[in-house]
Input
Amino acid sequence: MYDLALIGLGRVGFRTLDFLLKWKPDLRVLGIDCLDRSKTIVERGFNIDFTRICESIDIVKHLEDVKLVATALPSSIVYDYVNTLINNGFNVIDVSYIGFDPYIFNNTCLNNNVTYVPDAGFAPGFSNLVVSHLSRELNELESVEIYVGGIPVEPKPPFYYEITWSPEDLIEEYTRRAHVVFDNEIREIDPLDKIIRIDIPGHGVFEGFYSDGLHTLLKNIKARNMFEVTLRHPGHLNRVRVLRELGFFDDIKIDVDGIEITPKRFTAKLLSNKFSQSSPDKAILYVKIRGGGLTRTVLSVLERTVGSATVDFTSAVFAETIIIALEKGLEPGVHPLEDLHMYYEEYVRRLREIGVTILET
Output
């Protein structure tokens, strides 16, 4: 019997294992990936089992007697896995950047007596938890502002950014229409239509764009105005605009010398090759909430001299959510992190343990 099956052993998946096996050394884990990760598992000293699976329809027969399944997959394939798992009666914790409404699975979860926790990462994820925590202290929310980014400490031209996560999902941030709330109305807007300048206390001035990270907050938090802005160093977003306008982010196949490929996949591979992380980064999450004449803020920052702060922040939240689900148990249904507000201090303790500074005012 396994306590956990972890599907997706990329950067976030492996770093999550680091935290899980440090915090819970006796955890019995089955790792699953489409690529053969067995050599890396041995090299990193993980005492886990591994199996190679590439299709969601093949997953269920390998999960007998698994208590919990966690998924860390690209947004393009995660729906099929989540759908298969929930319909076959598995509890699921997911860190992927999903593009669907997770509440479409709520009735299935209730009928199968299972839990689905979407967006169990940095943002959306910990950002939801912070908003839920702060909003419980204020009445009639006027505004919820989320500013978030994983950015290089020393930006280098021409891109002023380095890839710390799935390059295809990074491109998705620039193409997926952002859902925001203005004057109590949910609106869909082009993420690159407006470049915003924001001064993050103690960290300087950044550019930002409206991103589609509110997700379940649109349903669970009522505010007159609410939005998420993703932070970038000045200069980056104008370059991204040019790439998008030229069609480099298009998802329709084109023929190149008899070979069909989507510009988006080609660009993702090119960006990964040219701009993979080679220098330290920092993860910034600044949440500001106004209501009842009061303003509350939480500034969370993780900076690394080696490795990836963004991956570490994401993976630590993911790992802590898995531990809470295993140890505390969660009610059946769909439960994003704003539903786990009662565990806010436990998340804060874990994050401070890995070096995150969290300042609440």
